[in-house]
Design goal:
This is F-box domain-containing protein. Pfam families: F-box, FBD, LRR_At5g56370. InterPro entries: F-box-like_dom_sf, F-box_AtFBL13-like, F-box_dom, FBD, FBL13/AtMIF1-like, LRR_dom_sf, LRR_FXL15/At3g58940/PEG3-like. The protein has 421 residues and is α/β, with parallel strands linked by helices. The chain is built from 12 helices and 13 strands. It has a 13-stranded parallel β-sheet with strand order 1-2-3-4-5-6-7-8-9-10-11-12-13. Strand 6, helix 6 and strand 7 form a beta-alpha-beta unit.
Length: 421
């Protein structure tokens, strides 16, 4: 009998074109990408062509781990510099997500090196920069010394398309200079960022003419804005904006007009009040609000806190289909003590309620009469409403008993109750 010959396994993947292999490597972390060099001679130089440097979930606990990580990044950067292939000198995407166990490791040993890396990569036609820094706060934290200074070279990189930053202070750069402009930036995500003054933040946004996606959370300022800055901020426009999520932005002026082209929007309604809101609140008067623009394109809206402006905002969202009302647990507890018994049901129903609204979610409903009346008002007038979901901090049977029997404009509306406790 003739013995069947067993063929050796074929390395099919190595026969693929370089472009496809580099595309595959771009989905790996840089550490994993470099590790493929041991597979065969074919793979030794492939990772040089990968225009992505990806360092996710890096944890630095000791001086030794900090040294090892610094050395590995320097090795990657210098290897690409000394490579003979032209493509290796371009970096499209740099992703660094790093957590330090203490502030000494971060600011004395780690961050000086990170600044050097950023200064290098922004010269390589960088398009995507994700820079997430996490450092525990010392017990005597006062805000300024422990927010590291962002390398200002980032603001000279005109090829950026996506910029994601967390935990920095911005200073030492003039946004009004000719050096600054992000002509290609479409996505800007900022979290825990402190600017020298409000005008810097405003000019940063103004320098992004095609911005489509904006997230700004916990934005702080060293100096309060002046009256001129307030008026400039109110006139700011972002004509290409589609998605915006702006919360905990600590300035008294708000860029409502700049957000007016959004399709999806998350804001705090308190910013629509005038600067003297607290005075009106203390004297139990209805506070005036700044001019609210018409959000012609808006279909998804999430409002944080101060629900007394909800109906007024809805009048400016003619095509709204999805509404979320949210308040923190602290605000919910305050509302339990500060019930607005004299809420008057508006006579004019917003267009979106009668013709467009499909879903409504109310989170942390605490049970005051005003909140219940608002929920009833939406149910009564939303003709196309499919679902209303209510998350409550009160006993579920109590809220369900008060809302379930109320009239509904939509015969198919499903009313659901969830427990926040």
């Amino acid at each position: 009998m003739q013995r069947q010959r067993i063929s050796s396994p074929t390395d099919t993947i190595s026969t693929l074109p370089d472009e496809i292999l580099c595309r595959i490597l771009s989905f790996l972390t840089t550490k994993e990408s470099v590790a493929t060099t041991v597979l065969s001679k074919r793979w030794i130089h492939l990772w040089y062509h990968v225009p992505v440097l990806h360092f996710p979930n890096i944890t630095i606990n000791t001086v030794e781990s900090n040294f090892r990580f610094n050395e590995s990044v320097y090795s990657v950067l210098t290897s690409r510099d000394t490579a003979t292939v032209t493509a290796s000198h371009f970096i499209d995407n740099f992703h660094l997500d790093i957590q330090y166990s203490n502030s000494y490791l971060a600011y004395n040993l780690g961050f000086p090196n990170i600044t050097k890396w950023i200064n290098l990569i922004v010269q390589r036609k960088l398009k995507f920069l994700h820079f997430n820094l996490r450092v525990p706060l010392p017990y005597n934290f006062v805000g300024y010394p422990y927010l590291p200074k962002l390398p200002v070279s980032i603001f000279t990189c005109r090829t950026l398309v996506n910029l994601n930053l967390r935990w920095f202070r911005v200073e030492g750069f003039s946004f009004s200079s000719n050096e600054f402009r992000f002509p290609s930036l479409k996505t800007l995500h900022l979290r825990f960022v402190k600017f020298s003054e409000v005008r810097d933040f405003m000019l940063l946004l103004a320098g992004c003419p095609i911005l489509e996606d904006l997230q700004a959370s916990h934005i702080y300022f060293f100096c309060a804005e002046d009256s001129i800055t307030v008026q400039e901020f109110k006139r700011l426009t972002l004509p290409k904006l589609i998605r915006a999520d702006v919360s905990q932005c600590w300035c008294s002026c708000y860029m409502a007009k700049a957000l007016s082209t959004s399709v999806s929007l998350c804001i705090e309604t308190s910013w629509l009040y005038t600067k003297d809101y607290r005075v009106y609140k203390a004297n139990q008067l209805k506070p005036p609000c700044d001019n609210i623009p018409v959000f012609h394109n808006l279909t998804h809206l999430k409002l944080h806190n101060n629900w007394d402006l909800v109906v007024q905002v809805l009048h400016h969202c003619p095509k709204l289909q999805n509404l979320q009302l949210y308040q923190g647990l602290y605000e919910a507890m305050l509302n339990e003590e500060d019930d607005e018994e004299n809420w008057v049901e508006p006579k004019l129903v917003p267009q979106c309620l009668s013709s467009y609204l499909r879903t409504c979610t109310i989170q942390h409903l605490s049970g005051p009469k005003f909140e219940l009346m608002l929920a009833k008002y939406i149910l009564k007038n939303a003709r196309l409403l499919q679902t209303m979901t209510i998350w409550t901090t009160r006993e579920l049977p109590e809220i369900e008993r008060k809302l379930s029997p109320c009239p509904k404009a939509s015969a198919t509306c499903q009313l659901s109750f969830m427990d926040n406790l």
